[in-house]
Amino acid sequence: MRPMRGLCAFTLLTLAVSPLASCGPAPTSPTPSPSATALPSDFPFPSATPTTAPSAMPTPAPTATATSIPTALPSASATASPMASPSASALPSVSPSSSPVPSPSAGPVGPDQVTRDSRQNFFTNYGVNPFVEAATDPFSTFAADVDTASYTLARGYLNANQLPPQNSVRTEEYLNYFNYHYGQPLTGAFAIHTDLIPSYFGEADTKLLRVGIQGKEVLDKDRQDAVLTFVIDVSGSMNQANRLELVKRSLRLMVDQLRPTDKIGIVIYGTDARSILAHTSVSDKNAILSAIDSLRPEGSTNAEAGLTLAYQEASKALRPGLINRVILCSDGVANVGDTGPEAILSKIKQNSEAGITLTTLGFGMGDYNDTLMEQLANQGDGSYAYIDTFEEAQRVLVTQLTSTLQIIAKDVKIQVAFNPELVDQYRLLGYENRDVADDDFRNDTVDAGEVGANHSVTALYEVRFKPEASTGEVAKVYLRYADVADANRVKELNKAVQASDLKAFSNADGSLRLAVSVAEFAEILRGSIFAREGKLSQVVELARTAQNAYPSDTLISEFSTLAQKAAALQQPTTVKSLDAIVAESKNDKNLPAWQNFLLKQLGGKAVQ
């Protein structure tokens, strides 16, 4: 599972002239298990003190040389001063807000507030990560994420000549849609890759750190057998060509890729739920395809009944040691039963702990519930993809079938520890709702992300060095996970990033140029104040240089086309000066040094 913790620490800087959103109290962190540990002793920093007990679980020896980086995980309350600490709120409601409906180009609202466009599509705004003082909080900790739905949702909007709603944009899902050609791990489940370059779009003195995690490849012929339970929404809202008919075409495509030793069961739901196919070997393909072809729209949308029955059927067919997966195909609408997420999510979590995971596949647009579909996959220890075209169905269910089905690692967490002797501030782009408390990094009772075979995870940081910084260790990247192939034994890797790793942007390869252009694209579309001067035309130019490196990658050329469409649709805006932004901003929290804090966040100089 990937935690759904909406950061409200920096809503102000998602919409610079609005008041700071109110942050609720942070939930109490679970008591660390005996397996929770402090950072390893190869990571010394004099001012830090251990916050967790030593681990009883054996872990690999450290792989990097000792340098002056922090030793222990700080309190979760540490954050950029003088801003109040980020706090996580409860799971957001999936009901639309009652406030006036914003246009797709309007500014974002506060975190955990669900909005809808004029066609009643449900999205959640999780805010925008701020710059954090490395001296106050040197640790950035988050759960891995391999979802891609946010990007394909945007593609659907742009192909319909509309900008995507800002609340629909999750930067990490844009980044993780693409193949960056990371090298495979030499041993084990993962390899860590890092790059350090000057920022292409940010302030002149800002650096950009890329962290790439590459999962090991599992060939299709080597994947485990699968016991799949399709749970299909056949309600009236699915009665459109891009919904139920696309579901049927997509599932037929998937069945054709499965092996005779795999099994499929099918549950459908409208006003109520029923099983239309007991788990059947794919060797009897005709029976499975006949059941798929028989699907017809009917009734209301009792998602709770459908998922409840699907998990009951999956439990009957459960085969330990194999892939046991429920695959939900829906537009996410739920208007009968307990339609709030909590009732459904609690049931899904119980089943995921029993070994039955969940993949959610979204279909359709117009009253589409992105928020619910994402939360379902998070609780179900699976992934979330949005199928906007038959070609996307081929990508997810054919090209990436093994990655979609076979998990290689559970509870995957990433922690980057920045050296405050070299780093002044850092900012993580995206992953706002994947935040993990720093001192929970080695608490193995805390759920995190699941990663499939050959999946990669990419994260970008904007980093501001101290003026005198020139040599030494900038940061250390830690990766912690439960290795599925090794009886879920918890393992940990790390890699140091040196100041000497910094290379000129002109030497950045096509993979890195692609990641930078995709991240800027997402930041502009979601209205990030940190991209206030961003130009989509420059995104297109940089994407084209990436295309030159990978001329056969059609997804990159498509991305360039989408960025061009977005540029044509974007309304011209007046770029305000830093002083104007500060002058118009309100300090409802009465925080000290408000003006200087804002100026520093935006790359300006503090007023004496």
Strand order of the largest sheet: 9-8-7-10-11-12
Question: How many domains is the backbone divided into?
Answer: 2
What is the radius of gyration computed over CA atoms, rounded to a whole number of angstroms?
23 Å
- Quaternary structure classification: single chain
Estimate the mean pLDDT confidence: 81
- Specify the structural class: alpha+beta
Distance, first to last CA: 47 Å
Share of helical residues: 25-40%
Count up the helices: 14
Low-confidence stretches: 1-119
**Strand element count:** 18
Q: Choose one word for the global shape.
A: globular
The proportion of strand residues reads: 15-25%
Q: How would a crystallographer describe the biggest sheet?
A: 6 strands, mixed
General description of the model:
The chain has helices at residues 149-159, 171-175, 241-257, 285-293, 303-316, 341-353, 370-379, 390-399, 401-405, 510-525, 536-549, 554-569, 578-584, 594-601, and strands at residues 113-116, 122-125, 132-133, 139-143, 190-198, 206-215, 226-233, 263-269, 273-281, 323-330, 357-362, 384-386, 407-418, 423-428, 449-452, 456-465, 473-483, 489-498. By secondary structure, it is α+β, with helices and mostly antiparallel strands. The chain has two domains: 12-217 and 408-503, no CATH class; 220-404, von Willebrand factor, type A domain (Rossmann fold, 3-Layer(aba) Sandwich). Strands 9-8-7-10-11-12 form a six-stranded mixed beta sheet, with helices on both faces.
